[in-house]
Amino acid sequence: MPNVMLRENDKGELTLYVPKKDLEDVISSVEFDTPDAWGGELTLTDGSSFIIDKLPGKPDLPITVRARRGAGA
Amino acid sequence: MAMSRDEVESLIQEVLEVYPEKAQKNRAKHLSPNDPSLEQSKKCITSNKKSLPGVMTIRGCAYAGSKGVVWGPIKDMIHISHGPVGCGQYSRAGRRNYYIGTTGVNTFVTMNFTSDFQEKDIVFGGDKKLAKLIDEIETLFPLNKGISIQSECPIGLIGDDIEAVAKKKTEEHGKTVVPVRCEGFRGVSQSLGHHIANDAVRDWVLGARDEDNSFAVSDYDVAIIGDYNIGGDAWSSRILLEEMGLRVVAQWSGDGSIAEMELTPKVKLNLVHCYRSMNYISRHMEEKYKIPWMEYNFFGPTKTIESLRKIAAQFDETIQQKCEEVIAKYKPEWEAVVAKFRPRLEGKRVMLYIGGLRPRHVIGAYEDLGMEVVGTGYEFGHNDDYDRTLKEMGDSTLLYDDVTGYEFEEFVKKVKPDLIGSGIKEKYIFQKMGVPFRQMHSWDYSGPYHGFDGFAIFARDMDMTLNNPCWKVLTAPWKKAAAEADVVAASA
């Protein structure tokens, strides 16, 4: 259950940052992205994914959340 | 002459051959020809891994990263090297973090404060000694604005509770006392020390004025993050920002003070120069205080101008206009520098092996002088550093992570660069080999190198080193015997 930070980079892309490992990557898709639910499985551009709890709507970025490792992470 | 990808790969293979199989496999992951078409460095190079036992590495320790780099330059605090005397004494004042103030009265950067652990402190614990030391500091140096306790290895090993001492003394003296758990054995290099130091700043210093709105803010407040004022670097950066109409509230941490750090959460934008050592605190401030941060590069006119425009774009038109004025003002100055030195340096090839931000940031400055960087590497970089390096370097140039003494020597023998920029531990080997060398950690006792003023000094220094006639008359001591034997043979 690593802590991850979600933020937008200077190109406006959503990125995921793992502070413990100093890894930062662009998020290519978000499982739930509707006005009343946001989160679930976050897939990175390299194919690996992290799973976070569903949030009530898109959060105010940047934000640190707990995540579980999904496929390939 | 540029090397092709195959040549670079076979060079790496050749150099690796002397290692045992396991070591070969390990080191192969850290050496790679550059491929600028890649987006992510993890596809070609591995970094931030434990150094191989038995090889000569140039890395430092977590204590070096915290006390030496991040905390040390904060001038009005006293940084206690808590533990045996050596760590503090042998690293004292070596990094040339310039500052303004009277040393020993209101500033303390070049002094060494240590608890000088003896056997009895290891056996019975050093907390009492630490408490006594802090009281003595308060008596002898009452103008200090705070104290940081930089742990050396034994503190973590014997399990001293420095946090408790810090809390008690903060109450007693009414000053910030920061315990930093930067024991040298933590992590694989000084890089973790930077992280620990950033976390200590976050936990013990940064929030001090959260409830206090007495500081008059302006729309143009910025902080310089990750500039350690080596040889005056932060000053030659700061004047450019100020001429542009921005107000520099804080310098982290070269010539910085604890008051500046406490005020940083009030700024509008954090300007990050050394990403490696201070991205952690910038990310934290972005999340907690919603302060955006951006990286910039003040080495060489091309990159400086690019960065100035990028910074100005974050503000309104008055700043953007002033930014253009600043660029125009300095143009004749740096053009004269290029006109003078470029003909003397054109086409020369450079190999770098440094730490932090320089392996990628100084490339632009060399290119402005018509020089080419043919190899670069980080002592303690992570994946994200190499991500940023791929695009700066040419195709099939050599990348080496945590290079060993042996590998670096072999690469230099084969690539034959005209200049090497690396640290003090490499300096004398290469100088004895007759290769021009600049010590790029503390600018070889010169500097500043940042900004337009710094570029003039940078260009002069590179010319002075590279075109020095002494290199041609040098024979390496280990080649001397052979050379003399040849002379004897010829005369017989």
- Strand fraction of chain A equals over 45%
Widest sheet of chain B: strand order? 1-12-11-10-13-14
The most extensive interface between chains reads: A-B, 14 and 11 residues
Number of β-strand runs of chain B: 14
Report the C-alpha radius of gyration of chain A, rounded. 11 Å
Radius of gyration of chain B: 24 Å
Helix content of chain B: 40-55%
| Beta-strand percentage range of chain B | 5-15%
Mean pLDDT of chain A: 86
| Sheet with the most strands, sense and barrel status of chain B | 6 strands, mixed
Content-based structural category of chain A: mainly beta
Poorly predicted ranges of chain B: none
Shape of chain B: globular
Count of alpha/pi helices of chain B: 21
Helical content of chain A stands at under 10%
Q: Kindly state the number of beta strands of chain A.
A: 6
Describe this structure as you would to a colleague.
The complex is a heterodimer of chains A (73) and B (492). Chain A is mostly beta strands. In chain A, a hairpin with a 4-residue loop joins strand 2 and strand 3. Chain A has strands at 3-8, 14-18, 23-34, 37-44, 49-55, 63-69. A 6-stranded antiparallel beta barrel of chain A has the order 1-2-3-4-5-6. Chain B has 21 helices and 14 strands. Chain B has helices at residues 5-16, 21-28, 62-71, 85-90, 119-124, 127-140, 153-158, 162-173, 190-204, 233-243, 258-263, 275-289, 301-312, 317-345, 358-361, 363-368, 383-390, 405-415, 424-432, 451-466, 477-491; strands at residues 31-33, 77-82, 113-114, 146-151, 176-180, 221-227, 247-253, 269-272, 293-295, 349-352, 372-376, 398-400, 419-422, 437-439. In chain B, the strands form 3 sheets. Chain B has a 6-stranded mixed sheet, with helices on both faces. Chain B has a 4-stranded parallel sheet with strand order 3-2-4-5, with helices on both faces. In chain B, strands 7-6-8-9 form a 4-stranded parallel sheet, with helices on both faces. Chain B is globular, with a radius of gyration of 24 Å. At the A-B interface, strand 3 of A face helix 12 of B.
